[in-house]
Sequence to fold (291 residues):
Amino acid sequence: MDMELTQTFLRGKNPCAAGYRWFVRNGLSGKDYQNALDTQVRAGRVSDARWLLENFGATHSVLELEHLEADHFVYAGTLIVHGDVRVPGELLVGRSLQAGAGIRAGTLEVGDDVHCGGALFAQTGLQAGGSVKAAWSVQVQGDIRAEHLRCGWELDCTGQVQLRGEAVVGQQVQVQGALHCGKGLRAGGCIQVQGLLDVGHGIATQDSLVCGNHVQAGWGIRALGDIRAACSIRAGESLDAEGDILAGEGYGVYAGMNVQMQAWPDCAWVRARHKPQGLVSGWWIEQAQWA
Fold:
């Protein structure tokens, strides 16, 4: 059974005066939590429903639907939709969201994981307390915040991407802001990041890596094309490119930042079509020495 909301319980959370008066005037005191959320959304008071969800948290309830189409939707538990999801406004879920087909939302915020059986599109932002997994592409006009991100096709974000874990992308990565991964970044296509590219573990791409700022990785960086940055390129271990490694004018290329100098020949080697200009650290391997 869902929790029951009382006036005393609500006042303890310091709500705004207008929202509290509306809550009392509409007889929501004594009603269950989800009923209050539904009533607020139907009345167009989505900001009040957001506040209620943020202050009272998620529930263990589960709602299953064949399809979901609504202007806005707020659910405190786990939402399972067997088909597609179409919510042009705010889609807020206290726990997990599972969709058998595609998800198209304005703002998408989920307390735990997002699993999408098709393409995921968010108009103004995507936030998940857990992992984001999409069988097809992830396209977000705004920022992305999550634990991990996996998609079978491309990742396209007009804002910043902040991941506490890893990103695994089947095709290309295009991020107009900064991209931060607490762990690794792997892509089957070109990685293009306009802002800072900061990865706690390693970076690997089946194409080129192009960055409009600094590139830094705690482990190594591997590309089957070029590794190019407008500023510096810094790797904790090795740098390996089938093409060229090119830092911005006046900036350096650094390998082996996180290992001792005597270990450079084994785990901080630098390999590319041509020796990078501005190579500051690492063990350069001539093309004739490539295994």
